[in-house]
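The data layer described in this paper is built around a simple, fixed record for each protein. We quote a single record here, exactly as it is kept in our systems:
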Amino acid sequence: MTSSSAPDPTADVVTIEPADLIAAAVLRCPAVVALHSGGHRPVATYLPGRRVAGVHVDDRGIQIALVGVIGVPVTELAAQVRSAVAPYALGRPVDVHVADVQPTTAVGSAYVHHGLER
């Protein structure tokens, strides 16, 4: 009789990285529609087997590329993002690049996003 090894329950576990926490914080900002990959100058954090598009984290700073809500001043948008990311920045500068803007429909204090994947 042969014994089969049990499947590894941790095989599909993804480690939460700082870039994941930062991406989630940015996406909770009311003036952010989505993260953006950055176009000609990609903005991403490359991790084993995956990447976090729109967020680049290194020792020198944090870069965020995003799609904002049309009509929100860029200074307000950047302030929202920097405030949301501050707990994860650890004193590093946070650069915010608004790659595009999209319309949204306001529902209460939240936004309903149209035409973009989250």
In short: Residues 18-113 form a domain with the Alpha-Beta Plaits fold (CATH 3.30.70).
